[in-house]
């Protein structure tokens, strides 16, 4: 792969940047405050794990024990962003956590390939897998946008004017909600992303797809608040550009593997690609056609999708971007303190997913309330204080953006009481933004409709 060493160095630096951004909140977001089963029980264990993670990133940057560094970085991402995603309030931080996991996995495979002097068949298989993996990610996210509201004018403009996600939300709220700029951005967000994904997969057009990919995330970096994700995503396509002559020579082979092992390795990579594609196809069948396979096959593909994992990328669709939470801490004297300001994207992801339960499962509060109590405890408030989570919906009225308070959820930790109150006469927590295919599914990780 061209520019591999440059890719490894840049990605190592971007992963380090992500760690620096999460460092002030690591004990809460990665520890037991948000994940009851986390091995990070206190400051000591948190410091040890984060230090190891930082050392791995530095190893990738400075070409020190790069195979071990890639393995450690991948293992950390796998555990905190994938393995515990359904248990932790962080929920893997969405794409912010999953893209680093993906690229760290590819670094491990390439480091192994270089160390054993892999033949062209293995190199070709790994290159194809790299391009299919990320190309399919782009195509899948684009398809979700185009089928879930973007073509109807319900798309990225909601994220841009949302304090949870937009960098310039105050400025952009001054524009009419039907401004042509927003329409062009919706078309570009879906169309350019889909085109880039297709071009990345086709060998002859990979450099062009890489440039589109980089430009797209440069724009996202300037407009949306997503931590280090745009930076990492801008750097990954470097591998698909023509040889730049930067970064130094590729790693030298340290071991020699027999020919049969290399043939087996190439076959395993292609089998992995086929399994990934088949699982994605089944998920699309489940989600868009509401069709299930025979039970044994369906259970098998659901298990594969959860383990690899494989899922339908859904980033900034209107149902996610159309609301945000204002967190108010109420003192015993009855006055509302200054609203808490959450600047890390992990906080926005956690609250969006947590309150998404009121949108998709309004009658099933057995999971929502314990998780909300856990989140509130992690705020570490003085005794006697309660918290009000104000649910604010962004709607378009008379060509302008209007913020409407749908309701609020009051949490009293002393009595462990959770009180949900609706305050808007028209909107409810589960009122859809626009007609579309977004709907409740049967279970976490499943794309079949509710029974």
Tags for this model:
2 domains; 451 residues; single chain; 16 helices; alpha+beta; four-stranded antiparallel sheet; globular
Task: Give a brief rundown of this model.
The chain is of the alpha+beta class. Helices cover 53% and strands 9% of the residues.
Task: Please write the string of helix (H) and strand (E) elements.
Answer: HHHHHHHHHHHHHHEHHEEE
SS elements, strand count: 4
Taking the sheet with the most strands, its summary is: 4 strands, antiparallel
Overall average residue pLDDT: 91
Helix content: 40-55%
Shape: globular
Q: What do you see in this structure?
A:
The N and C termini lie far apart (47 Å). It is built from 16 helices and 4 strands. The protein folds into 2 domains: 4-307; 322-422, no CATH class. With 451 residues, the chain is an alpha+beta fold. A 4-stranded antiparallel beta sheet has the order 1-2-3-4. The model has no long low-confidence stretch (mean pLDDT 91). A hairpin with a 4-residue loop joins strand 3 and strand 4. 53% of the residues lie in helices and 9% in strands.
